Amino acid sequence: xxxxxxxxxxxxxxxxxxxxxxxxxxxxxxxxxxxxxxxxxxxxxxxxxxxxxxxxxxxxxxxxx
Length: 65
Fold this sequence. Notes:
Order of helices and strands: EEEEE
Structural class: mainly beta
Mean pLDDT: 75
Radius of gyration: 15 Å
Largest sheet: 3 strands, antiparallel
Strand order of the largest sheet: 3-4-5
Shape: globular
Number of helices: 0
Strand content: 35-45%
Low-confidence stretches: none
Distance between the termini: 29 Å
């Protein structure tokens, strides 16, 4: 996940064999739930990924004098 040229997230959230072209069949949506960014699956209620929004923000005080 990127914001402009800055990488916000560089994690693998799904691996499937043998055909990565079918990955899109696994993903349903990206949502904000209870302060977390979550990636939901098309079938069932399972989450593929969840991470607090605060983890995407720059650290407090970083770059300040």
